[in-house]
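Lecture 7, part 2: worked example. A protein chain together with adenosine monophosphate.
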Amino acid sequence: MKRIAVYCGASKGNKSLHTDATVQLGTYLAEHNLELVYGGGGVGLMGLLANTVLDNGGKVHGVMPQELVDRGASLDRLTDLKVVDNMSTRKKTMLNDSDGCIALPGGPGTLEEIIEAFSWARLGDNDNPCVFYNVAGYYDSLRDMFDNMVQNGYLTQSDRSKLLFSDSLTEIFEFMENYIPPRIRQYSK
Ligand code: AMP
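Predicted complex, written out as structure tokens:
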């Protein structure tokens, strides 16, 4: 693995455990020569993560729609910034340019992006492992929802096992290294 896409809040939240975990992830990426691919923003956990990677000598690739660049949302010290037409192209580009996806705590944007990536994995359109960095149990209720999908027959246990919720960076990167994409989804009438 060389490049990791990280989705996270464009806000900073109000929990120091979340900002601490963001700094830990950024430091881990830089120390392991893993390049960051992210939305290119300079604010919230996004900005904190990118600045941490750069401060520790790592590389950061931003991908941002023109509209957000025009609004001055991009971080000005990125290794490089790809400017794209819209959010859909941004999400595709982030997946194509990375080898794995991690969600730190965040809001609706974070959730939407990682869940789209996981949904596409089941369709055969994304080979990247998807992981929720479950800092301080932030994603516990979402993990329960995915288990509920299995119990109600909307997701197979086998596909459920392709999505990790973990608060351990060691476990997260082991999972990513050993990941085999799900079988392409079949539909029965
Ligand atoms: P949210 O979790 O709702 O704060 O949204 C964060 C996600 O949406 C990020 O992963 C970005 O891809 C995108 N996003 C939202 N706001 C911004 C911003 N100001 N700059 C860059 N990306 C943003």
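The mean pLDDT is 96. The longest helix spans residues 16-31. Keep this in mind for problem set question 3.
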